[in-house]
Specification:
Mean pLDDT: 93
Structural class: alpha/beta
Strand order of the largest sheet: 3-4-5-6-7-8-9-10
Number of helices: 14
CATH architecture of the largest domain: Alpha-Beta Barrel
Radius of gyration: 20 Å
Distance between the termini: 43 Å
Order of helices and strands: EEEHEHEHEHEHEHEHEHHHHHHH
Low-confidence stretches: none
Strand content: 5-15%
CATH topology of the largest domain: TIM Barrel
Largest sheet: 8 strands, parallel, barrel
CATH class of the largest domain: Alpha Beta
């Protein structure tokens, strides 16, 4: 029997293999439905989406409405006011073809909403819960201080936070804090935005944390097949996987872009979340596509940076984004000139 994870005080128990529907917004409706249905029939039961993921909710509703009561649907909202939340929730219920959401999550707020804080946002969510439109309340965040505040507040059933084998001891301490406070931990960015290329290593490492439910961003059937295979043959830590993790940590730990996208939009039109990690992408997942005319144009657009500082200010990881972009552009030009081999 494959490992199960209980999201602490919720009592919700699911296979330690969950589906992030963020990437299905990038494929057409029928292909998304194929992925979602195949995932369901293979054993996936936890499906995570968000109001901000364009048509992701709609695709889940289209593909899985007939098995609604056999799955958990988690969604999110960037709403900043009670009225905006209520509007978002009604839209989510309609697009998901359901009359309730199992887990509603505040989507990366800069400040942790709390009951009675004068903001009214948490209270509006609590009212929706009393009406039966929401079963549990969670928060998704990239900011450690907000995540810790949420866990310690006692107001949240779950926390969704980036967690992978590139995480440091502070992130691991957050997982343990969730265990202590009886808050479910949902691990996003388990492949670190694509920089981790060995899913078996990522899966095995996360398998060491029995209170962590990883969600995998899937947009191709070949990717889905990998994770389906882990239901019957879950990877475990061994010397080969340990070696992969140690090598990746040596190359990637530190000042690298996680591709969360919160730096966007850029006033100069720079595709920051790709361009700021271009050299790592080229070296870790070699592809001539990264050297195409389209990407050359995108990288050269870094020269149009007005150094407004918005990207750096908005980065939840406090990365010096401007200088990271410049460094990537300099290395990219060296690659194009043939002076550096990849």
């Amino acid at each position: 029997m494959y490992k199960q994870v209980t999201l602490c005080r919720t009592g919700l128990t699911y296979p330690k293999n969950a589906f992030s529907a963020l990437p299905v917004q990038r494929v057409d409706k029928e292909y998304a439905a194929l992925l979602l249905r195949k995932a369901y029939h293979a054993g996936f039961r936890f499906f995570d989406t968000a109001r901000g993921y364009t048509d992701s909710e709609e695709k889940i509703g289209y593909a899985l409405h007939d098995v609604r009561h056999d799955i958990l649907i988690a969604t999110k909202s960037h709403a900043k006011t009670p009225d905006e939340f209520r509007e978002n929730l009604e839209t989510s219920l309609t697009t998901l073809k359901t009359d309730y959401v199992d887990l509603f999550q505040f989507h990366n707020p800069a400040v942790c909403p709390l009951p009675g804080d004068g903001w009214g946002l948490y209270d509006a969510v609590l009212e929706a819960k009393k009406q039966g439109k929401i079963r549990y309340i969670g928060i998704s965040n990239h900011r450690l201080n907000v995540a810790e505040a949420a866990v310690r507040s006692g107001a949240y059933d779950t926390l969704q936070f980036p967690f992978s084998y590139l995480s440091d001891r502070i992130d691991i301490a957050l997982v343990e804090l969730c265990r202590e406070k009886n808050v479910g931990f949902i691990a996003m960015k388990a492949l670190s935005g694509g920089l981790i290329t060995k899913s078996d290593a990522a899966f095995a490492w996360l398998g060491q944390y029995d209170n962590v439910l990883p969600i995998w961003g899937i947009q191709r059937e070949s990717e889905l097949d990998e994770f389906i295979g882990y239901f019957s043959d879950p990877p475990a830590m061994d010397p080969r996987i340990t070696s992969i993790i140690e090598k990746d940590r040596a190359e990637l730990t530190g000042n690298f872009c996680r591709s969360c996208g919160y730096c966007m939009p850029c006033p100069a039109g720079i595709q920051i979340f790709h361009c700021a990690r271009m050299i790592q992408l080229i070296r870790r997942a070699p592809s001539s596509a990264w050297l195409s005319e389209e990407w050359q144009e995108a990288m050269l657009n870094i020269e149009n940076c007005i150094e407004c500082g918005q990207c750096k200010d908005k980065c939840p990881y406090e990365i010096d984004t401007i200088n990271l972009l410049k460094a990537n552009l300099a290395d990219y030009k060296e690659i194009l000139a043939g002076r550096v081999r990849v």
